[in-house]
Design the sequence.
């Protein structure tokens, strides 16, 4: 069960130290200083939570209908984007997914390292890479000081209970001048503001913190990083986020399309009726292309569903 945190004992913002946090909605607290939103409900045991809800126990799969293949392609795209700043000798991926991303670096001769909270994903990734993936939180892994050329933190920081501890640890293990690549959902994008609680990117209670480009940039700069590049375009997340958000707002059960593509054992909520599923799928089919175009337009205006920073460790 998620741990309930009341407004009174939420205390100071864990990212900038300001107080008090104020209610933003029934589910979120806002820091008036740095603008970060914090979820009221938070998972108590992160490792158990991610082991049970994110990957199947047996083979660490997430999606049905062959959708693991596009995910694999997106990890290659992620790798290609980073190679313009490379090459890298040592690469750490925090939250390794199934290891396809690290495999790309390994194929280029890099020594790769990873951390993972899900036991099945850690097992599958360790087998795929032929080396042990650390099962647990990044600060507990105790990687050598200044040993990494690149640290990747894709869609992780919003899940982390103590982001400052993570960023301090990354500053320690990244060599001076090394690169941090980071991606998070954009909690101040137009669709989040327009659709409110229907927005897919809140993903409560999995996401503890909800960043926007200004708040994350300020946090990174306080921890000794210089942002070199900012990007909002994501084929993986942009169109799907918008489509699922619109379906949520139309009254289908929350994240029904997402649950439909997920492996069945990962979703233990109530099942939608056949009529509701067919209606949703027809609508999703009709809205897919408009959502793709809308995502392209919004991300080109700095309103992407997610945003990425490429940062240099000042050391
Ligand atoms: Zn704050």
Sequence:
């Amino acid at each position: 069960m998620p741990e309930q945190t009341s407004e009174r004992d939420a205390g100071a913002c864990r990212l900038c130290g300001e107080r008090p946090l104020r209610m933003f909605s029934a589910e979120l607290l806002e820091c008036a200083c740095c603008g970060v939103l914090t979820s009221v409900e938070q998972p108590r045991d992160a490792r158990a939570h991610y082991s049970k809800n994110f990957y199947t126990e047996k083979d660490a799969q997430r999606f049905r209908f062959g959708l693991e293949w596009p995910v694999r392609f997106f990890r290659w795209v992620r790798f290609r984007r980073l190679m313009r700043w490379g090459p890298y000798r040592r690469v750490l991926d925090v939250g390794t997914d199934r290891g396809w991303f690290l495999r790309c670096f390994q194929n280029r001769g890099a020594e790769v390292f990873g951390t993972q909270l899900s036991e099945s994903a850690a097992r599958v990734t360790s087998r795929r890479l032929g080396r042990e993936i650390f099962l647990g939180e990044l600060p507990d892994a105790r990687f050598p000081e200044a040993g990494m050329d690149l640290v990747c933190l894709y869609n992780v920081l919003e899940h982390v209970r103590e982001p400052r501890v993570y960023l301090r640890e990354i500053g320690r293990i990244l060599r001076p001048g090394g690169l941090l690549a980071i991606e998070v959902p954009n909690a101040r994008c137009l669709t989040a503001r327009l659709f409110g609680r229907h927005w897919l990117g809140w993903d409560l209670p999995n996401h503890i913190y909800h960043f926007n480009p200004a708040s994350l940039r300020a946090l990174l700069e306080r921890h000794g990083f210089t942002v070199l590049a900012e990007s909002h375009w994501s084929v993986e997340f942009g169109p799907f986020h918008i489509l699922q958000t619109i379906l949520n707002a139309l009254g289908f059960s929350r994240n029904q399309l997402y649950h439909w593509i997920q492996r069945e054992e990962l979703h233990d909520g109530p099942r939608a009726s056949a009529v509701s599923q067919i209606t949703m799928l027809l609508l999703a089919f009709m809205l897919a292309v408009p959502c793709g175009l809308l995502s392209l337009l919004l991300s080109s205006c700095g309103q992407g569903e997610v945003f990425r920073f490429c940062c240099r460790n000042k050391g």
Residues 13, 15-16, 18, 31, 33-34, 36 surround zinc ion (CB under 6 Å). Confidence is low (pLDDT under 50) at residues 1-9. The two ends are 40 Å apart (CA to CA). The first strand starts at residue 3 and ends at 4.
